[in-house]
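## retry 2 of 3
previous attempt timed out at serialization; input unchanged, resubmitting
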Amino acid sequence: MASMAERAGGEVVGVSAPWGQPLDPTNVETAFAEHSPDVFAFVHAETSTGVLQPEVPKLTEIAHANDALVIADTVTSLGGVELRVDAWDIDVAYAGPQKCLSCPPGASPLTLNDRAMEKVLSREQAPRSWYLDLALLEGYWGEDRAYHHTAPVTNVYALREALRLVAEEGIEERWERHREVAGTLKAGVEGLGLEMNAAEEWWLPSLNAVRVPEIVDDGAVIDHLLSEYDIEIASGLGDLEGEIWRIGCMGHSAREKNVSYLLSALGDALESEGFESEASAPVVSD
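## retry succeeded, writing output
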């Protein structure tokens, strides 16, 4: 996000938090007082650390009190964990279809409220990006149907079908399914003697970051799961490289039988590395 803003000519000020913890609203307030930004952007569900930002309404309140627009990255939260764009007063939100919506990538959900669109339509200079000129896109997708590009029709149909399945299940029920299934995963890895990276109060059900035991080679476990069980989990990034495994539990694949299979395979992979589990992982049925 910072790189894109800088490439567009923006001056970026970062508000950081320790890896594995959410943003502190006090630090955000301090940054506004010092820098008076026009836009506040944050990640709702952080896939690098397994952290879910818990105080979104507080963050948007701070931003709007300082006349700033709010942009939220909801790539790993849309369709998987509670997300209330309007109620939380988020101005702009974007997501990816391939995670909790279980949809082929290619057409990404994007929403802007009236406040954000007024800003877009009232700008005095044309944006640097013709491809993502939202004023032109508004004309293309709106009533005017002014040509801008050839739509990725199959991707749009795929996204519509994914959203139909969400509506059929019910969004609240879908959130609860993710929490319950990921809760089984969380209990299972803890039963194996492992620790979660994120604290309970900001644990992200759709992306579970698990601490790697000191005696275990994280890459060897990843390779074992892929070669022996056809299961792929990810390694850590940045400051957490080699320190965590990142295990997705999202969309259609967030099922009890998948969790049971993973836990059994993970126990075997850990054993192959000489790690003795404290207890056996629970066995669950679909």
